[in-house]
User: What shape does this take?
Amino acid sequence: MKKIFAIALALVMVLSMASAFASACVTGPFDWACSTDATNCGKATIEVIPYVNTNASCNGNLFVENDCAAAINGENVYYAVRLTVDADVDPEWWDSIGKVLVDYTGLNKADVKVTLPTRGADDSEDGWVFYWDGLDKKAANWHEATEDDNFDVQDYVLKARVKEYAKAKVCASFEAAYTPDVTGVRVGNFVVKYAAGNPAYLAVYADDGVTKLVEYKIVDEKVVTINYTAACGEADYAAIKAFMGLEIGTCVTDDAVKANFGWKEEVKSCYEWKTQNATAIVDTECVVAIPKTGDASVLAWLF
Assistant: This one.
């Protein structure tokens, strides 16, 4: 039995990548610094980006990104929803997200839930950037930004008509619910489970997720006791200790557990259109100056 666990532990780094149920990012070494917010691999972010409509050559239009975009009742506002995915995104974290929620305030649009694009459809060293085309319920409605001629961000600038300019806002968000508090995290041929609280308990199980090998009791965010079971044995506990990096006095916080083994968080981006000094479309080079007090032209300007 001891030989089996010793061999399995030695292969953790390899098997964690090969196992169909293992996170490709949970391979150690683990960071137990009390203030850690590090993660073992990448995530994803989402952005709502405001645009304004401008004239282009050949009697065309050009949407230009502009953080000063303003809302006027009855007029359109323009925006894009961009999803950026790290190249080393944790597949279990990604798969837990489910859908992106796009919600509207003060605009003539209804909230919508959008299915995520397929993770890693193409090999990438830099990750992926996707734009939403404004449709719902189909993963194909995300379009990958590429450098070839088939992609033009202008095609994915969306519009909405303003109903209440003072409330005009678009938000895009998703929630990742992958957390060791619920299901445990597979690390190679082992399963790690964590129960938050004071005391908290972190336990290492065999591949079946039932046979407990080692349990760590944590009080006031410090490991106070370590118990290994007969199924583990002293020799194999030493190997697990070296791999996990846990001993009496090690700082173990909820945030550190989530950083090392999984995440649970909401990622959200909003843009709220400006309302002060908002005007209808004007020529930016045309300046209409109000005459100064005492100027002889004041009466003429007023009347």
